[in-house]
C-alpha cells in the first residue's frame, strides 16, 4: 500500500533538482554516442575505442560534477561512477590497439558498474515524486547490457557495436526523462530554488 508523501519538499530532491541539467547533459552525450555508432556500421574496434572513450570521459566528467555539486547523502555514488567512466575512457583512448576483447570487457564492466549504482540510487530514492523509476530502469538496462557483454565478449564486433549503440540511445533517453522529471518537480516547488 502506498503511503502518502509529505507535503514539504524532500531535502534530497531539493539538491538533486537544482542539478537536473547534468542528467540532461549525460543523456544527450549518450544519444550522440549511440547515433555515431549506428551511423558508422563499419566502425572498427579502434574507432569504437576512440568514440566510446570520448563518450565515457564526457559522461564521467558530468557524473563527477553532478556528484560534487549535487545534494543528498549519496552523491558519492556519482563520484565513483564518474571516476570509473573517466578512467575507462582514458584506457580506451591510450590503448586503442589492444585486443577487441579487452575493449569490450572495459565497456561491459563500465556498464555493469553504472547499472548497479543507478539501481541502488533508485531504490534509495524510490519514494521521490520525481524520477527514480527512470534511473532504476536505466540502471537495469546498463546492468543487463554490461553483464551480457562481460559474459559473451566475443559475440562479434558488429553485433556488439549495434548492442552498445542501442544501449547508449536508450540510456540517454532515460537520463533525459529523469532530468525533465526533476525539472518539472523543481518548477512545482518554487521554494526549493
UniProtKB/TrEMBL annotation:
The chain crosses the membrane at residues 20-40, 46-66, 78-95, 101-121, 133-154, 160-180. It comes from Paraburkholderia dinghuensis. The keyword Membrane applies. Pfam families: DUF308 (PF03729). GO terms for cellular component: plasma membrane. It comes from the Bacteria. This is HdeD family acid-resistance protein. InterPro entries: Acid_resist_chaperone_HdeD (IPR052712), DUF308_memb (IPR005325). Keywords: Membrane, Transmembrane, Transmembrane helix.
